[in-house]
Design goal:
Helix 1 packs antiparallel against helix 9. 36% of the residues lie in helices and 12% in strands. It has a 7-stranded mixed sheet, with helices on both faces. The radius of gyration is 23 Å and the shape is globular. A hairpin with a 2-residue loop joins strand 6 and strand 7. It folds into 2 domains: 141 residues, Aspartate Aminotransferase, domain 1, CATH 3.90.1150.10; 236 residues, Aspartate Aminotransferase, domain 2. The structure holds pyridoxal-5'-phosphate. Pyridoxal-5'-phosphate binds next to helix 3 and helix 4.
Length: 429
């Protein structure tokens, strides 16, 4: 029997895995063209043809809408600002509630707060980690106005059931697709199933422009309101003759021509990058899921998971050791960091369930849940979402070894590390 590296044995591999970098000569050339033009942003915060931005922004938006089969694609400077825009466009106001997921990047829960509304956390689905429809239904009150769904890790949430609930209760559905570009649910792109969808182009995502985001919608009214929120709507409503000016004031969420130029090139690469990710994820999953205590996520029928991260449930009762012990042993066998030590390629859970953040625990806000317009009693106690707490604190393992750029040899080293730990698991008991 081999000695595990964590017990002083020889590790499977010490050479770092390749960094994920998909920026190449195409992006450089496109950026130089914009720089040579001297026109780095053509947006004007007034009712003028440049209210919609310059030529590169408009081309990027057209390309995005064409690929994602949506009527509108509206660029913004981040997914976060896109989520704020979507909440504002839906007319959400103080006293309203929005159902959100506790297992997401913090922005998807904080977005309602920006408009004075209250995020209400529903629990996640034990098998696909997105919002659970039964828990959504239980969280609805007369104050609920919208459901903010997250396709977490790139796996589509249970949209048929979520859309049916929304229809029954007359709610907007906002899809946070930051981790799920080109993921499909029953052959439809996520983001185009609800009323409005938002993608991220930050550095960590499948494709990126440094920072950036794109909103998609097929709804003319929501699109008009997004354009207003993105670009100083208060200056526009009067000359444009907009009747409903609620929530249309105040922001500069505009993307620059440089980012749009990068985005156009990145978008061309997206389909192949997704295919490579998928191929790597399937290769890893086939071997790792042979270990009886690793349970892969359930992907809905006729749907496509695009693997921003690859998550497994780890069953400690079957393994005989706990999750963190297993992870630490794997980390000793192979490098677990590419970019920085604090962005591991293998991790215990994802983010702490969001309602446990001080913002909610200390109710550290003047309005929103402390607002006199709010007539509900939202609960942020530990234990309100037992599934997400069990997943996060005990069971979930997230991997990023399926990134494009990993060779067969690299992937085989990952598999070898898992198997070495599995075959010598008694050393860890
Ligand atoms: C990355 C991410 C965001 C935030 O995206 P930014 O573009 O950085 O603002 C929001 N939600 C989810 C699920 C994310 O993964």
């Amino acid at each position: 029997m081999a000695i595990l590296a964590i017990k002083g044995g020889t590790p499977i591999r010490t050479k770092l895995f390749p960094a994920y970098n998909n920026i190449g000569k195409e992006e450089k050339r496109a950026v130089m063209k914009v720089l040579d033009s001297g026109n780095l942003s053509q947006f004007l915060g007034a009712w003028h043809k440049d209210f919609y931005g310059g030529p590169t922004i408009q081309k990027f938006e057209k390309d995005w809408a064409k690929i994602f089969l949506s009527k509108y694609a509206i660029t913004v400077n981040s997914n976060t600002s896109g989520l704020f825009t979507a909440i504002g466009a839906c007319g959400i106001k103080p006293g309203d509630e929005v159902i959100v997921s506790p297992y997401s990047m913090s922005a998807s829960a904080v977005a309602p707060i920006i408009y004075g509304a209250v995020p209400v956390f529903a629990d996640v689905d034990y098998d696909n980690f997105g919002l659970n429809p039964e828990s959504i239904e239980k969280s609805i009150t007369p104050r609920t106005r919208a459901i903010l769904v997250v396709h977490i890790f790139g796996n589509p949430a249970r949209m048929d059931e979520i859309m049916a609930i929304a229809k029954k209760h007359n709610l907007y559905v906002i899809e946070d697709c930051a981790q799920a570009p080109m993921a499909t649910y029953k052959r439809k792109y996520v983001g185009t199933i609800g009323d409005i969808g938002i993608f991220s182009l930050n550095y960590h995502k499948h494709i990126h422009t440094g920072e950036g985001g794109v909103i998609v919608t097929n709804n003319d009214n929501l699109a008009e309101r997004c354009y207003l929120i993105r670009n100083h709507g208060e200056n526009i409503v009067e000359p444009k003759g907009v009747k409903d000016a609620i929530n249309t004031y105040g922001y500069n969420f505009r993307m620059t021509e440089i980012e749009a130029a990068i985005g156009i090139e990145q978008l061309k690469k997206l389909p192949n990058l997704i295919e490579e990710r998928l191929k790597n994820a399937v290769y890893l999953s086939k071997e790792i899921a042979k270990l009886p205590y690793f349970i892969p996520p359930v992907v809905e029928q006729e749907s496509k998971h695009v693997y921003y991260q690859q998550a497994f449930k780890f069953k400690k009762d079957i393994a005989g050791i706990d999750r963190n012990t297993f992870i630490n042993a794997v980390k000793a066998e192979i490098p677990s960091a590419i970019l920085r030590e604090d962005t591991p390629l293998i991790g215990a859970g994802y983010v702490k369930p969001l309602y446990l953040q001080p913002l909610y625990q200390k109710r550290a806000l003047h309005c929103s849940f402390n607002c006199e317009k709010y007539k509900g009693h939202v609960d942020y106690s530990k234990g309100i979402c037992p599934i997400v707490e069990k997943l996060h604190f005990e069971e979930l393992i997230t991997l990023e070894y399926m990134r494009p750029g990993m060779s067969k040899v690299d992937l085989n080293d990952v598999i070898a590390a898992f198997y070495k730990v599995a075959q010598n698991i008694n050393e860890l008991k």
